[in-house]
Write a structure and sequence with these properties.
136 residues, alpha+beta, Alpha-Beta Plaits, 38% helix, 24% strand
Length: 136
């Protein structure tokens, strides 16, 4: 006799991961979001490099917030994102006083998923798009 399958929120996150390894369903799979906000592009690049080297995370985007602020976003398992954000924040501080904030969301709500980029190229904007569109 087979036991009934428990609801998704009771199953471990590993049971809910899609077979193709898709990281877009964070609230279902337990995939975390890590964010580092910096003053300037150089600290943002330094932080992104350190995060990707420190743990198994995927760089999903960067946002030029305005006033010289840049936010870098990574996704991965909670432990990996935690390690990556710590490494990124440390690297950013070594560049100067560029670190503004570092934050982790362990399980992103489904409603928030719609505003997150799925890859660095999926943002469709930022400073590069503005520069390209003004050239003739």
């Amino acid at each position: 006799m087979n036991a009934p399958t428990p609801p998704a929120w009771l199953r471990p996150a590993a049971d809910a991961v899609k077979p193709d390894g898709d990281l877009e369903m964070a609230s279902v799979t337990g995939i975390a979001l890590g964010m580092i906000e910096t003053r300037g592009l150089v600290p943002a690049i330094e932080a992104a490099d350190a995060m990707c080297k420190a743990a198994e995370v995927r760089l999903i985007g960067r946002q030029f917030v305005g006033g010289g602020y840049v936010t870098v976003l990574v996704r991965g398992e909670t432990g990996a994102v935690n390690a990556a954000v710590r490494a990124g924040a440390d690297a950013c501080e070594r560049v100067g006083d560029g670190l503004v904030a570092a934050h982790i969301i362990a399980r992103v709500h489904n409603e928030v998923e719609g505003i997150l980029p799925t890859s660095p190229d999926a943002e469709g904007g930022g400073r590069d798009a503005e520069i390209t569109s003004t050239r003739s």
